Amino acid sequence: MTNPARVRIKICGVTNEEDARAATDFGADALGFNLWPGSKRYIDLDRAFSWIRGLPPLVTRVAVLVNMPLDDARRIADHPAIDVVQFHGDEDESYCAQFAACGRPFIKALRVRDAASLDNLETFSTPSILLDADAGTAYGGTGRQLDPQLAAEAVRRFPGVKIILAGGLKPENVAEAVLAVRPYAVDVASGVEATPGRKDTEKMARFFAALR
Q1: For position 135, what pLDDT does the model report?
Q2: What does CATH list as the number for 8-210?
Q3: Which parts of the chain sit beneath pLDDT 50?
Q4: Burial readout 32-55 (b: 16 or more C-beta within 10 A, e: otherwise)
Q5: According to the 3-state scheme, what is the secondary structure of 64-88?
Q6: Which residues, other chains included, contact 160 with Cβ-Cβ below 8 Å and sequence gap of 6+?
Q7: Domain locations in the chain?
Q8: Which of 40, 66, 121, 163 could pair covalently with 36 via S-S, beta carbons 3.0-4.6 A apart?
Q9: Which residues are part of the catalytic machinery?
Q10: Which pLDDT score is estimated for 133?
Q11: How far apart are CA 87 and CA 41, in angstroms?
């Protein structure tokens, strides 16, 4: 059984099997694969199918989508290499409600600018909400840090929501952020990279060590 008090760890922006295996060896609970062509961490799911499908069975495989047509999102959700989809674009409440009708789990990412950004947090038809820093037109992976006070406010205001903390996390600040926010999970991409799309094993080791 999973310890409910333990903060789960999602390593996002994984582009290759070597990094995926390293992350799972360190104890990652989930891996994120960016299927948005505009991302520096984009991968072709069909080309990566064999190694993604071959990852350990208790690791959640997350497809990160940005403003994808609804029918295509449903198709990705049904892909045998994917367990969960994450909407990281401008998908609104109506879009999420229509997707929820297909019965597949999903995460909705919100870019948080101020306290008002949290007001509609419970309206996206999912209990899993990822909070990221607002970086204008960028869709995640910028390294910009989210104000931990805003994230902590979300945890207090919405106890029934599984808050996933993202935005500028790295080995040097993740422990402090978790103590301040008490999220359900943390999500990191650029903070454990050597270059965009390539993870740094030493940084990943320090990230996991900091949380333990």
Answers
A1: 62
A2: 3.20.20.70
A3: 1-4
A4: bbbbbeebebebeeeebeeebeeb
A5: EECCCCHHHHHHHHCCCCCCEEEEC
A6: 122, 127
A7: 8-210
A8: 66
A9: 12, 132
A10: 85
A11: 16
Through-space distance between the first and last CA atoms of the chain, rounded to whole angstroms: 18
CA 24 to CA 37: how far, in whole Å? 25
CA angle 179, 181, 185 (to 5 degrees): 95
DSSP line for the chain:
---TTSPEEEE----SHHHHHHHHHHT-SEEEEE--TTSTTB--HHHHHHHHHTS-TTSEEEEEESS--HHHHHHHHT-TT-SEEEE-SS--HHHHHHHHTTT--EEEEEEESSGGGGTTTT-SS-SEEEEEE--TT--S-S-PPP-HHHHHHHHHH-TTSEEEE-SS--TTTHHHHHHHH--SEEEESGGGEEETTEE-HHHHHHHHHHH-
* Location of structure tokens 């949380």: 211
CA distance 202 to 192: 8
Q: Is the pTM of this model over 0.85?
A: yes
* Farthest-apart Cα atoms in the chain, separation: 43
Burial of residue 28 (CB within 10 Å: 0-12, 13-18, 19+) is: buried
Q: What is the pLDDT of residue 1?
A: 32
